[in-house]
Amino acid sequence: MITLGEYIVAKQNDFPEATGELSLLLSAIRLATKVVNREINKAGLVDIIGTTGIENIQGEVQQKMDLYANDTFKAALEARGEVCGVASEEEEDFITFNGKRSVNSKYVVLMDPLDGSSNIDVNVSVGTIFSIYRRISPLGGPVTLNDFLQPGSRQVAAGYVVYGSSTMLVYTTGHGVHGFTCDPSLGVFYLSHENIQIPEDGQIYSINEGNYLKFPDGVKKYLKFCQEIDSVSNRPYTSRYIGSLVSDFHRNLLKGGIYIYPSTASSPQGKLRLLYECNPMAFLVEQAGGSASDGFNRIMELKPTALHQRVPFFCGSRNMVADVQTMMEKYSS
Ligand code: AHG
Ligand code: MN
Ligand code: MN
């Protein structure tokens, strides 16, 4: 049984140039995960479900757990001093850490502290997503917006936690995707899924089909294709949509499938945020052998222009993403 901490150290030793800072950063994330996990498990017993009555910068109603998770991850990242700044779904601007260690640290973190948060009131899985970059501004000076607006291809590490029927942390540092399951009696994450590979051809499609009439024609054609009967490609595919990106992504990663949140007539940029939802998932899925696209371009090559930028998202098994991209190019460009 290998723990997450042991695994990170073992991997770090494979790279002579590693200084251990990234390992410490990941251990800060691990600690915050345990705290958030403990709280989520109490939902229904203590006063943490429901909304704060406040809207966040995206105009979405903040849940109490959104704020709790945001504060917990920020505090853990600041305390270790391995991060000089953080950007979060729940914060309008990025945050600079001014501690002595923090100002000289080389990493910034972007995060969705609680993904799928509206599901928490009904005991459905939620998650956390994180994305880590090396800053591009000089060490010791102020953190800048450009440190956060880097293309996804420059990510140093990314991962997510799924607070599901068991709690799992899945991450990549660009050398495969590895999953760890929490033993709740010990509060320890053990390696349970080493080197995850997503099947090239999946059988599951995940999309909020209630928006069908607002979808681009390319997506409508693809959905009809998914529903056709064809014994060779084993269609119709199965439709599965939880409404927590992390949970939908995690299932498709393990079983093979595609997650789609396209542009719609009312949200031409889609719903999901490039920097702390799509880029980290794109990095993970590519590391597992899959792909991620905005319908036309590779997600990780997009040049971000704003912290909370949204982007259409097609992510999962490589051949499924290729199929829908072909239809987008034919019917929606
Ligand atoms: P968040 O809770 O961080 O705001 O994210 C919710 C996102 C994502 O998790 C999910 O896949 C999607 O919103 C669901 O949107 P719809 O309700 O429009 O399907
Ligand atoms: Mn989210
Ligand atoms: Mn969120």
- Estimate the mean pLDDT confidence: 94
Query: What share of residues are in beta strands?
Result: 15-25%
Q: What would CATH call the class of the largest domain?
A: Alpha Beta
Query: How many E strands?
Result: 15
Helix content: 25-40%
C-alpha termini separation? 50 Å
Structure classification: alpha+beta
SSE run: HHEEHEEHEEHEEEEEHEHEHEEH
Q: Which characteristics define this entry?
A:
333 residues, alpha+beta, Fructose-1,6-Bisphosphatase, Chain A, domain 1, D-Maltodextrin-Binding Protein, domain 2, 5-stranded mixed β-sheet, 15 strands, globular, binds 2,5-anhydro-1,6-di-O-phosphono-D-glucitol, binds manganese (II) ion
Write the layout of secondary structure elements.
Elements lengths: L3 H9 L8 H20 L10 E5 L5 E3 H17 L2 E6 L6 E2 L3 H4 L3 E9 L10 E9 L10 H4 L8 E7 L3 E6 L4 E7 L4 E6 L10 E3 L10 H11 L10 E2 L5 H11 L2 E4 L12 H14 L3 E3 L19 E4 L1 H14 L2
Parallel strand pairs: 3-5, 11-12, 11-13
Antiparallel strand pairs: 1-2, 3-4, 5-6, 6-7, 7-8, 8-9, 9-10, 13-15, 14-15
Helix pairs in contact: 2-3, 6-9
This protein binds 2,5-anhydro-1,6-di-O-phosphono-D-glucitol and manganese (II) ion (MN) (2 copies).
One manganese (II) ion binds next to strand 5.
Give your account of this protein's structure.
It contains 9 helices and 15 strands. It starts with a helix and ends with a helix. Helices cover 31% and strands 23% of the residues. The chain has 2 domains: 190 residues, Fructose-1,6-Bisphosphatase, subunit A, domain 1 (Fructose-1,6-Bisphosphatase, Chain A, domain 1, 2-Layer Sandwich), CATH 3.30.540.10; 128 residues, D-Maltodextrin-Binding Protein, domain 2 (3-Layer(aba) Sandwich), CATH 3.40.190.80. The strands form 3 sheets. An 8-stranded mixed beta sheet has the order 4-3-5-6-7-8-9-10, sandwiched between helices. It is of the alpha+beta class. α2 packs antiparallel against α3 and α6 packs across α9. The site of one manganese (II) ion has 4 residues, from β5. One manganese (II) ion binds next to β5.
